[in-house]
Amino acid sequence: MLQTVSEWLWWERLWLPVNVSWSDLEDSEGRIYAKGSHLFSALPCALCMLLVRYLFERYLATPLADVWGIKDRLRLTVEPNSLLENYFRNQAKAPSQADVRSLCKKTSWSERRIQVWFRRRRNQDRPGLRKRFCEASWRCMFYMFAFIYGAVALYDKPWLYDLREVWAGFPKQSMLPSQYWYYILEMGFYVSLLLSLSFDVKRKDFKEQVIHHTATLTLLSFSWISNYIRIGTLVMAVHDCSDILLEGAKVFNYATWHRTANAMFVVFTVVFMVSRIIIFPFWLIHCTWVYPLDHYPPFFGYYFFNVMLMVLQLLHIYWAFLISRMVYKFIFSAVRVSKCSCVYKSEEVGTYLWFTVSHCGSPVFCSWKVMTGVMKRRRTVTHPATKDRVT
């Protein structure tokens, strides 16, 4: 049975065009071709990534957080209550009004006390600022390194400037060492992200992140085995260029460099829209849909690869919608602040305005504070989903 499954899995018509077999891709005359066995290197690379991340966060990011004065906010602990704790863990973290009344009867507590308990209990599970800073610093460092490496590996390649060159001689295109290490580096990183999901900061777009990482790994694996390596390297470079700015903006935001963070977020928005909403679909997907037909008839791998690219594009559209909504709220929040009866310079009143973004976007958190003399006034915008105060 295993033999049958293996034969079906490696059936040439699934991976290669008509009239091309695996024997045509055997190493010969100094030409080395990509093989499925090469992908096993991604797992030890992922484990090395986790080790490097641990060392980076402990010996670089944490001391940097100390230098910038980044501290976790002290949060009040909840009163011990086994009934409420059991409800929180097994049913819902934010009970409905009817459930609050029911819990009031069971605990003899007031509704206000129940609501305060659940709000504090949710706050206890939220990751601290230092953890967010360390995670964003690690991702920013990796994306920067990967993008620079990809740019160095691609700058002298003809298919970077003429996409038709992507398919010249396909599938008998020999593998370059730079392509091998670029793939293993990226795949190791995404495998490490999947392995660390359980202890990473859990964001609002958690499910979308799992889909994104899984689709990315599937796409990279398939493109490697089918020798779609040239287009694969271009896809990776397009994705990395905007991720650097996003993670960098979060790093500066956590360090309270708000003007720098806001400026980087604006640049990130422009780069994201250009790279993933324009270049990715109208250049790269067009390259994989149209140009291959000049060289061979469609086969399963052709359709599968393009479907996976479309899955990524749907995620890009979803994140672009979230980012656009955040920019919209940013603009109109700024307008409302500017129309306040009391006008202060930002340096004098400690204006704080920033978006907490998860990877490629999540609902906006926006707050500002105005302090003058002995008076302190704080305005807070509630989270659109939980209606919790942002503190």
Description of the structure:
By secondary structure, the protein is mainly α. It has 13 helices and two strands; from the N terminus they run αααααααααααααββ. It folds into two domains: 31-66 and 128-335, no CATH class; 82-125, Arc Repressor Mutant, subunit A. The chain is 61% helix and 3% strand. It has a two-stranded antiparallel sheet with strand order 1-2. Helix 3 (42-67) crosses helix 8 and helix 7 (129-154) packs antiparallel against helix 10. 29% of the residues are buried. GO terms for molecular function: DNA binding; sphingosine N-acyltransferase activity. The chain crosses the membrane at residues 38-56, 136-155, 180-199, 263-283, 303-323.
Q: In summary, what is this structure?
A:
The protein is mainly alpha-helical and 391 residues long. Helix content is 61%, strand content 3%.
Over all CA atoms, what is the radius of gyration?
Answer: 25 Å
Strand order of the largest sheet: 1-2
* Helix content estimate: 55-70%
Q: What about the largest sheet?
A: 2 strands, antiparallel
What count of domains describes the coordinates? 2
Q: Provide the succession of SSEs.
A: HHHHHHHHHHHHHEE
Task: Estimate the mean pLDDT confidence.
Answer: 81
User: How many strand units?
Assistant: 2
Percent strand? under 5%
Tertiary shape: elongated
Overall SS class: mainly alpha
InterPro entries: HD (IPR001356), Homeodomain-like_sf (IPR009057), Lag1/Lac1-like (IPR016439), TLC-dom (IPR006634)
DNA-binding region: 73-129
GO molecular function, one term: sphingosine N-acyltransferase activity
Catalytic activity: sphinganine + octadecanoyl-CoA = N-(octadecanoyl)-sphinganine + CoA + H(+)
